[in-house]
Amino acid sequence: MPSWSSSKPSSLEKQQEERDGKVLSDSETKKRKPGGWKAMPFILGNETFERLATFGLLANFMVYLTRELHMEQVFAVNIINLWSGVTNFAPLVGAFISDAYVGRFPTIAFASFASFLGMVTVTLTSWMPQLHPPRCTQQELNLGHCIGPNKAQLGILLMGLGFVSIGTGGIRPCSIPFGVDQFDPTTDEGKKGINSFFNWYYTTFTVILLLAQTIVVYIQDSISWTIGFGIPTLCMFFSIIFFFIGTKIYVHVKAEGSPFSGILQVFSAAYRKRQIKLPVDSEVGAIFYDPPLNEIVLTKLPLTNHYRFLNKAAIIEEDELKPDGTCVNQWRLCSIQQVEEVKCLIRIIPIWAAGIISLTPITQQGTFPVSQALKMDRHLGPHFQIPAGSIGVISLITIGLWLPFYDRFIVPALRKITKHEGGITLLQRIGIGIIFSILSMVVAGLIERERRASAILHPQPLGVAPMSVMWLAPQLILMGFCEVFNIIGQIEFFNSQFPEHMRSIGNALVSCSFGGASYLSSLLVTIVHHVTKKHGRPDWLTNDINVGRLDYFYFLIAGMGVLNMIYFIYCARRYCYRGSSLQKEDKPYVDVELSSIKA
After folding, report:
1. Which of 19, 480, 528, 588 has the fewest CB atoms nearer than 10 Å to its CB?
2. What is the rounded distance in angstroms from the CA atom of residue 168 to the CA atom of residue 157?
3. Separation of alpha carbons 388 and 67, rounded Å
4. How far apart, in Å, do the first and last CA atoms of the chain sit?
């Protein structure tokens, strides 16, 4: 493969060998005193309380919007979906600003204040009478006689949610990298510290989810919405204090530039050189720009023939190199490494797109299942009533019980059969998750049909069906399996297919999948609401679900899931893994997923 060279090839070749072997010379190794575990309580505390604020708000927000603010069901669902979409896309912006301009510490600091301000605003909407509609009885609410929020009240609520989204956009993409910055990855102690940090990070994440969907929801539902919102707001305030106390302990890494800029540079350079003819394998003459890797890049990617038009971005033309061998204009000449990194992203996009529809059932957990729970018998014994917003705990319990069992027993058994390290391939795991998402919607539709029939057959003043809320457990258990296989499979897949320094993009893609699923769900709800309302009949998603046909809506999502599964299989069978095809190879190794064939 033709490559760029300078006046000192021996020195550069040695440097390149050191990079490819993931070993840096003593002169290149930076000495520093990492914050280590002394900094972890402050970093984990900030992230933990930010998630407590967000999830504590979202877990029972459907009940708050419909019961306290008297919103129509479809309007409330759309607010939640749109806000969830903004919140999941915001980390992309936060990651770009942090990596390219200001660094992680200032980003987290600013975002923490924004999140706190948002939580204070939302808490005030439940506390101050001027910021919410007048109270009314449950019977008036069922009859639709309650006054909804005016434009000013709705505007203040949305402003508060906007501040929370800004906080989420800054904290989530920076908290993990900022925690990793505190350890020295060149030492064994630092590597162990990073692994332990990840374990603690996900442990606290799970604990927060359980607290948000049990204790916080119970306080909101049974005691006071003001107290229920005030507790996570107070926690967010203390997290800011703790975060700044650790300022002198932290390791502060300067902004090194965003990978998004490199992606745009490749497309720009390829477009400017679109008239250049690429050489065939037998031809010699085109010289590709292949400088040594910089310090943050550890994996060397070979030039491939996939998406060959992008290879033009790395062809060296006259006067495009400085005397020291560096390129004159990064928007006209890119390295082979940059080109192949963009190809990694392009290959993954079709698989990522399939994840949007498959996650749509999961985005329903905080909306329509809560409406179902409100119309079912939620008593657990004579004196305790399960809060409707806590019903999603069933999915968390499923994940917590299945993951260890799958890792300890299922994977080793499958490994003996398939000879694959993970038991099954990552794309097969994602595919199984998509199947579970389809099944969850089919089961949800069947259960809703029975619940509706029971409510009509045994009419009660509040429209509550004489049917235990635990009948929702099957669909929530299937949603839990969908998360175990689909979401975790996506996380592992994206991280394995991107080079180490681009894994932040992989993590951002998972968040964007949820954002896209939220927007798709909102669009679907709006279309169904308007299309099915005709000839004087109520629409499928009317406020009174006993009159509507929520079961049809679930079946519609299941049908979309079947079509999505066919699309996913098509993409997965043609997916070629990163680095599996070299430039001069005519027969690249292709790991064909979801089949037993390998080409």
Report:
1. 588
2. 17
3. 12
4. 24
- What tokens does 2 get? 């033709």
Share of the chain above pLDDT 70, in %: 85
* Gap between the Cα atoms of 554 and 502, Å rounded: 37
Q: Considering only CA atoms, which of 482, 495, 360 is closest in space to residue 431? A: 482
**Ramachandran assignment for 8, one of left (phi > 0), alpha (psi -120 to 50 degrees), beta (any other):** beta
Helix axis angle, 488-497 to 336-358, nearest 10° = 170
Which range scores top for mean pLDDT: 137-141, 310-314, 316-320?
Answer: 310-314
The DSSP secondary-structure symbol of 221 reads: I
Among 70-74, 177-181, 271-275, name the one with the lowest average pLDDT.
177-181
Three-class DSSP category at 34: coil
Q: Please work out, in degrees rounded to the nearest 5, the angle formed at the alpha carbon of residue 281 by the alpha carbons of 278 and 284.
A: 70
DSSP notation for 344-413: HHHHHHHHHHHHHHHTHHHHTTTSHHHHHHHTEE-BSSSS-B--GGGTTHHHHHHHHHHHHHIIIIIHHH
Lookup: tokens for 92: 């992309």
In DSSP terms, 377 is beta-bridged to 468
**What does the DSSP 8-state code read for residue 179?**
H
If one counts every other C-beta atom within 10 angstroms of the C-beta of residue 249, the result is: 17
- Name the strand (E) or helix (H) holding 115: helix 104-127
Please write the tens of the pLDDT for every residue from 103-150. Answer: 888 999 999 999 999 999 999 999 998 998 988 877 777 677 788 899
Give the residues across from 321 on adjacent strands.
327
547, exposed or middle or buried, with CB in 10 Å at 0-12, 13-18, 19+?
middle
- Spatial contact of 112 and 167, defined as CB atoms under 8 Å apart: yes
How far apart CA 87 and CA 516 sit, in angstroms, is 11
Q: Count of CB atoms within 10 A of residue 413's CB?
A: 10
